[in-house]
Amino acid sequence: MPTLLHLDTSVFPGEASASRSVTATFRKEWEAQHPNGTVIYRDLAAEPLPHLDGLAAAAGFAAADQRSPEQHAAFALRETLASELEQADVVLIGAPMYNFTIPSTLKAWLDHVIIMGRTAGAEQTTTSGTPTIVVASRGGGYGPGTPRESFEFVTNYLGKALGDGLGLDVTFVVPELTLARSNPAMADLVELSDASKAKAHEDVAAKAKELATRFAAA
């Protein structure tokens, strides 16, 4: 049975988080299709990873049999995280926009799993082609043609890091204007916000079914 790697990064719990509610919809549909499948779940907000340090970074450039005992110990977490990613048949990431970019906890995860010559830096990486759904929620509107289009550093960064860097097959689902119901200044955008949220839930449910069908036929 296929394995799903599910990462949440929002600092807000449950339905208070747009990204968590949408990733939950995907996972619910996925588990309905694969009740006996494996789900590897990391809540990077509740259990943040340590930032990559020099010892762990250097260990990633050394052959396993040439690492010092200190490097072996420092690399252990990177090995675990990279192996989880390599094991995954599908990756699901909740990536809300914080201060125009991704949560620092997600960046820490990326720094650990991007290992040159293994998961990255080769024409065919150990993670190439893995279907990856990124729920990139944001409180305002940052799409093409909007006044703040140039402030968007979530999908453009993750498209490069996940797609070009790790070789993942990335699909973005973008619920926008999520603050409309809580911000009086955005009251006239509530209808658009609700429509964007509904479409996000529909899109991830459809994507979960599509991928379930693909793996059932494999």
Account of the 3D structure:
Helices cover 41% and strands 12% of the residues. The chain has 218 residues and is α/β, with parallel strands linked by helices. A five-stranded parallel beta sheet has the order 2-1-3-4-5, with helices on both faces. β4, α5 and β5 form a beta-alpha-beta unit. α1 runs parallel beside α6. It is globular, with a radius of gyration of 18 Å. It starts with a strand and ends with a helix. The relative contact order is 0.16. The mean pLDDT is 95. Its EC number is 1.6.5.-, 1.7.1.17. Belongs to the azoreductase type 1 family.
Layout of helices and strands:
Layout: E1 3-8, H1 18-33, E2 38-43, H2 54-59, H3 69-87, E3 90-94, H4 104-113, E4 131-135, H5 155-165, E5 169-173, H6 190-217
Parallel strand pairs: 1-2, 1-3, 3-4, 4-5
Helix pairs in contact: 1-6
Helix proportion of residues, in percent? 40-55%
Query: Which blocks of ≥5 consecutive residues have pLDDT under 50?
Result: none
Helix segment tally = 6
Total strands: the figure is 5
Strand content is 5-15%
**Mean pLDDT rating:** 95
Question: Globular, elongated, flat, extended or rod-shaped: what is the shape?
Answer: globular
Structural class: alpha/beta
Strand order of the largest sheet: 2-1-3-4-5
- The value of Rg in angstroms is 18 Å
Major β-sheet annotation:
5 strands, parallel
The secondary-structure element order is EHEHHEHEHEH
| Intertermini distance | 10 Å
Question: What is this entry, summarized?
Answer:
The protein is of the alpha/beta class and 218 residues long.
